[in-house]
From TrEMBL:
Name of the protein in question: ABC transporter ATP-binding protein
PROSITE patterns reported in the protein's UniProt record: ABC_TM1F (PS50929), ABC_TRANSPORTER_1 (PS00211), ABC_TRANSPORTER_2 (PS50893)
CDD domains to which the protein is assigned, alphabetical: ABC_6TM_TmrB_like
Listed InterPro entries: AAA+_ATPase, ABC1_TM_dom, ABC1_TM_sf, ABC_transporter-like_ATP-bd, ABC_transporter-like_CS, P-loop_NTPase, Type_1_exporter
Domain ABC transporter, residue spans: 351-586
Annotated source species: Pedobacter frigiditerrae
Signal peptide boundaries: none
Native organism taxonomy: Bacteria, Pseudomonadati, Bacteroidota, Sphingobacteriia, Sphingobacteriales
Length: 594
């Protein structure tokens, strides 16, 4: 329950919704309870008037008595109608305030969670799967909304109604009141247990459903593999067995649900029988009028629904508390990477690594060991090495996706940890190894890093990334949609769109993480020659596997098992006759054998 205290700040924020809301609940309940008394009076009127009417049988006055009697009845009928209309009106206001407030809170919470997620560092996204992150921001928020809206509304409603009815019941006759209310606690407890059972079963069904949907989603994404290995039948069988588990659980739930209403009606029926029986005895004793019995029956029926709701509300609150606990777990996480510096300098692009070591916290893999090197302003530096040697890790550290364990990274002589991170990242153009394009137009994908696009900027970036000719071949050119709703680009085209996205920013530091692997050597040369022009005077770091890509670099750093084993220019490294020279010979041999 304590987790729900987190929501108090929202109740405070929306106090001008909840206070009138409570007021409307009270008024609507007063209008809901008074008709029972009118029914009681009407009932008494009927019994008394019938007796008088019969007394005047055969007299002229009988007609007059009939008229008075029917007019009074009409008056009572109209009064009940007006009272219920007023109740309806205030119920409308109650929902318009409390339920609307819950929607506002839901909106605020989703935004708060989303904004917080974005602040958390890359490591957080590695540790938690996307499905879990999404569930907490959607399904869990929805459950919390059921608490801040319906649960609170029904609790206040039931409490107010209960107090009013109990007051009126005891005002009429306390013995009858006690007997009428006797079955209600049993109703609350029974409904609570049935509801808990229903919830447990629903939860299991929900889990099965999400397993089924992820299964379907994954298999459809991998449909090419399934078709080429002719595994449709096997996949279908797995799907059928998953579905049958879902079907059985659902049928199980229906059985419990079928118990719900009969149980409720049975207990309400019991209350009504008690009212009539005990009430009848009280009428014989002269303690109450027959109209009071009618009044009590209306009260009992009015209490049924709110009391049923109590059982439901209890489970709503329990579920909301569990959901809020999950939400809080992430909301209370502090980002590993923070920066408080507000300065916004323009960087020259000098980078120094001083004895930098880094171990991935989640796997314990030591990816970099005492790495030291310097990149001067405007230099073109290449990083090469076997797979898993730590090249991408090095790029991630330059962008401060992670903080180093030991040693330090300096940009223009200032420690990276002390820089304004957003300002720094804004001046970097990064092309990741695994291209990621959004389901959007090519134009928006290229201009992703810009707030405003100038005329011709996107086209120029596409030309620089040597992808312009491919794009203008599409019918919709730069407006072509990518992703699930649009076309699929080839691997090389994707890489080049991703390069254009980095180039359009005109970055001070450009980092290419092995992003030329899917382009042919001719296109690669074109891109590199364009880079030479665009990045003149600016720093470029190029991670690559092919020596042909990097042999013109000002400096080549050779990594092996997280350590720098050689660094220098192409010619210097060849003269060294070390690992680089060996790599070069091997690649030459491969080319000759092709
Ligand atoms: N996010 C991560 N969490 C844990 N370990 C990681 C992570 N990323 C990389 N590693 C590990 O760190 C080591 C270095 O990986 P890195 O991606 O830097 O190599 P690389 O030289 O870029 O390889 P490749 O040429 O194949 O891209 C590898 O052993 C890898 O398994």
């Amino acid at each position: 329950m304590k987790h729900l205290f987190f929501l108090n700040k929202y109740f405070y924020k929306y106090k001008w919704w909840i206070i009138p809301g409570v007021f409307f609940v009270i008024i609507s309940n007063i209008f809901g309870v008074v008709p029972a008394q009118v029914v009681g009076h009407a009932f008494n009127l009927i019994t008394e008037n019938i007796a008088i009417y019969q007394l005047f049988d055969g007299f002229e006055r009988q007609e007059i008595i009939y008229n008075i009697f029917s007019n009074s009845l009409f008056f009572f009928g109209a009064l009940i109608l007006i009272l219920y209309l007023m109740r309806g009106l205030f119920l409308f206001f109650m929902r318009q305030t409390i339920i609307l407030m819950s929607r506002h809170i839901e909106y605020d919470m989703k935004n708060e969670i989303y904004a917080h997620y974005q602040k958390l560092s890359l490591g957080f996204y590695r540790r938690n799967n996307t499905g879990d992150l999404m569930n907490r921001a959607t399904e869990d928020v929805n459950r919390v909304r059921m608490y801040v809206g319906p649960a609170i509304m029904y609790t206040i409603n039931t409490a107010v109604l209960f107090l009013l009815i109990i007051y009126f019941m005891f005002d009429v006759n306390s013995t009858l009141a006690i007997y009428c209310l006797l079955p209600l606690p049993i109703l609350v407890v029974t409904i609570y247990f049935v509801n808990t059972l229903i919830n447990q079963k629903s939860e299991r069904i929900q889990e099965q459903l999400s397993r089924l949907s992820s299964f379907v989603q994954e298999r459809f994404s991998g449909i090419r593999v399934i078709k080429s290995y002719v595994r449709e039948k096997q996949v279908q069988d797995v799907f059928a067995s998953e579905s049958i588990a879902y079907k059985n659980s659902s049928m199980n739930l229906v059985k419990v649900q079928a118990l719900f209403y009969p149980t409720m009606l049975l207990l309400v029926g019991l209350s009504t029988i008690l009212t009539v029986y005990i009430g009848g005895k009280q009428v014989i004793d002269g303690a109450i009028t027959p109209g009071n019995i009618a009044e009590f029956i209306v009260y009992v029926n009015q209490l049924t629904f709110p009391v049923t709701m109590l059982g439901w509300v209890t489970t709503l609150i329990q579920r909301a508390a569990a959901s809020q606990k999950r939400i809080n777990e992430f909301l209370q996480l502090q980002p590993d990477i923070t920066s408080s510096n507000a300065e916004e300098p323009v960087f020259d692009g000098k980078i120094s690594f001083k004895n930098v070591s880094f171990t991935y916290p989640d796997t314990g893999i030591e990816a970099l060991r005492e790495v030291s090197f310097e990149v001067e302003k405007g230099q073109f530096v290449a990083i090469i090495g076997r797979t898993g040697s730590g090249k991408s890790t090095l790029a991630n550290l330059i962008m401060r996706m992670y903080d180093t364990d030991a040693g330090q990274i300096e940009i223009d002589g200032k420690e990276l940890k002390n820089l304004n991170l957003n300002n720094f990242r804004n001046q970097i153009g990064f092309v990741p190894q695994e291209v990621f394009l959004f389901s959007d137009t090519i134009k928006n994908n290229i201009a992703f890093g810009l707030s405003a696009i100038e005329e011709g900027q996107v086209e120029q970036a596409a030309k620089n990334a040597a992808v312009y000719d491919n794009i203008v071949d599409f019918d919709l050119k730069f407006e072509t949609m990518l992703g699930e709703r649009g076309i699929t680009l080839s691997g090389g085209q994707k890489q080049r769109v991703s390069i254009a996205r980095a180039l359009i920013k005109e970055p001070k530091i450009l980092i290419f993480d092995d992003c030329l692997s899917a382009v042919d050597t001719k296109t690669e040369e074109e891109i590199l020659s364009n880079l030479g022009k665009i990045m003149k005077g600016k720093t470029s770091i190029l991670i690559a596997h092919r020596i042909s890509t990097i042999k013109n670099a000002d400096k080549i750093i050779v990594l092996d098992d997280g350590k720098i084993i050689e660094q220098g220019t192409h010619n210097e490294l060849l003269a060294n006759n070390g690992a680089y020279a060996e790599m070069y010979d091997n690649q030459l041999l491969e080319e000759e054998n092709r």
